Amino acid sequence: MKKDDYIPLFESKAAGWRGVYWLYAISMAVSISLICIHRVMHFPQQHGLRRWAWIGISMAELWLSRRYGDGGLPRVDIFVSTADPQLEPPLMVADTVLSVMAYDYPPEKLSVYLSDDGCSDLVFYALYEASKFSRVWLPFCRSFNVELRAPNAYFSGVKQVPSDDPSLAKEWREVKKLYNEMEAQITLIMKLGKVPDHLRKHHEGLREWESGASRSDHHTILQVLIDGRGNKEVDIERKPLPMLVYLAREKRHGYPHNFKAGALNALIRVSSRISNSPIILNLDCDHCSNNSQSVRDALCFFMDDEQGHDIAYVQYPQRFDNITKNDLYGSYLRVPNEVELLAMDAHGGPLYIGSCCFHRRDALTGKKYEKGSHINWKQVNEIQEPERENQLEETAKLANCSYEENSSWGTEMGLKYGCPAEDVVTGLSIKCKGWRSVYFNPGRKGFLGVAPVTLLSSLIQQTRWSEGLFQIFLSKYCSLIYGHGKIPIQLQISYLCYNLWGANCLATLYYVTVPTFCLLKGINLFPQLSSNWILPYAYVLIAKYTYSLGEFLHCGGTLKGWYNDQRMWLYKRVTSYLFGFCQTIMRYLGFTELNFVITGKNVDDDISKRFEQEMMEFGAASSMFIILATIALFNLLTSISIARSIIIKKPATDLDSCALQILLNEVVILINLPLFEALFLRKDQGCMPASVTCQSIILAALAYMLRY
């Protein structure tokens, strides 16, 4: 294409309000510098508890202060991952698969692969049912321009039969009936816990489990449910269907399977023999398509003649369709999604966050970017793997557990092994090979997932993330070391902010306990209200929370949502990040092994109802809840003690000297109001368990008595 004829497929623009942000950042830097000067100039001369508390609070403050036409379109492979039919219901998996099969994209150029790392015949049967229903669902979506193409989400949103279009109403009833039948059949086998013998004859793939395959010990199971090559299989309108493939890679005792990274690498190899599409979309099984144009939108970045040659992946934000109005558990990650990841585009692109991401196959398999190299998309489309009689059997060998022995898979090729945050490491490695990424946040959300609906599941999820990210910091993949000279320093620091999530626990835990204890002892850790040194502290406090609130509201949040977000900010740091930090240290000392925890997507109706009413769920006994309740109760006991001292005119402390400590104490109490309610007022199943309440009261009382 001539230079004068070039029309860009996408455009990047500088964000607005940058001047306000820079003013905020510079003023905060000056104030924090003044606080550091105050800490040095007023360092306690006498030995004892005050000196050590002063040192600790200074270190905590220092830590917390960082912060073409269809014919020219390429083929696309879509990877959907699942690992446990109990935690990730097969019906949800089937809905996700159907949603991506129904993309507004030439079906003969779509290949959908399901990786079942739990090797469940229940999942295979659900996929088989979805393959049959797709012959009706895809034409229905095309005919009536259905945008939300996950059947369950669509029918849940359209409660009544459409009355304005008779033809739509007729087909709606018929398709809804067929979906209800599929849903009932899948629900039935889930209740049975197995696929009955009379149903196994429906597809030869179901016989694979007759040899006694188990979740952790089985041969490779590779089945093509819909063969889209050569338009062999069609829907009820005689239009071609996308290819649909099921894979459960081989697992044997004694062979490391490397969790999700190993499953995706097996899919990369298997798909290279079957469809070998140059573009790959990977999704978690709970992230269904919410935008039928997402594939075409993503290709605008890859296929741009001047700007697209070095783009390795296009990352969509992870969104959820079950978020409450005020985002009870902060699952939306509003500011990271709307601001932080978007800002990384200026320095090489966002992190790869494991799902909702379109990849260039070459980059994902380890190829380095060579400046000036271009891909001929039409030529790529002409490449076809010759079909052989034994092709499926040969292809299955690529998913055998011994295939990767003495190979570069997991190190130089595919997703990286040895870290729970394999996605972030892989994205960093790709960028260090000369590629860049793009963050795309369209007006209509590209994908919708399922957020945790209990506090414990949310904290466990955050534990896995913080553990994996901190492991990266301590490994050779630390961005400051691995990325040195390969990616911009700004991008190195951006990665570092996430890698150090776990380490945040130390400063936060110190800040919500030690100043409170010192308040009981009459030890002041902050300047007096009458001192000029109070000004930088006051400015940082006011500016930080004013900016935080303004940013949160600007990103579409609510005032109560911001309050919930502040609570989760604290809860994550004193539990999830603490556990992730300690587990990482224990692993490096050889006491624990790498583990991968799946976040459950299946909850009962009572929990869902309380979640919709925005009532925090504390119903399960957990050491995390003991920590949270102990901190809250200790601060409450301290507040009562200080109030009592003031009321009887015998203050135990100088209010002028300890005003900021009292304010900090009251803020911790205010944040924990829902926790106090769960401890003492609620009687439902989501209240704090009695065992947790008793242990927390004892620990808080012991901490309180240490004042004497």
Please describe the structure with a list of short key phrases separated by commas or semicolons.
26 helices; 10 strands; two-stranded antiparallel sheet; alpha/beta; eight-stranded mixed beta sheet
Explain what this protein looks like in three dimensions.
The protein contains 26 helices and ten strands. α23 runs antiparallel to α24 and α23 (623-647) packs across α26 (690-705). The chain is 49% helix and 7% strand. The protein has an eight-stranded mixed sheet with strand order 3-4-2-1-5-8-7-9, with helices on both faces. Strands 6-10 form a two-stranded antiparallel sheet. It is an alpha/beta fold and 708 residues long. It has helices at 18-41, 49-64, 90-101, 121-143, 151-157, 166-192, 197-200, 259-274, 294-302, 334-343, 361-364, 377-382, 391-396, 422-431, 455-474, 479-482, 489-499, 504-511, 514-521, 534-554, 559-588, 605-612, 623-647, 655-671, 673-680, 690-705; strands at residues 76-82, 110-116, 221-226, 243-248, 279-284, 288-289, 311-315, 357-360, 436-439, 447-448. The model has no long low-confidence stretch (mean pLDDT 88).
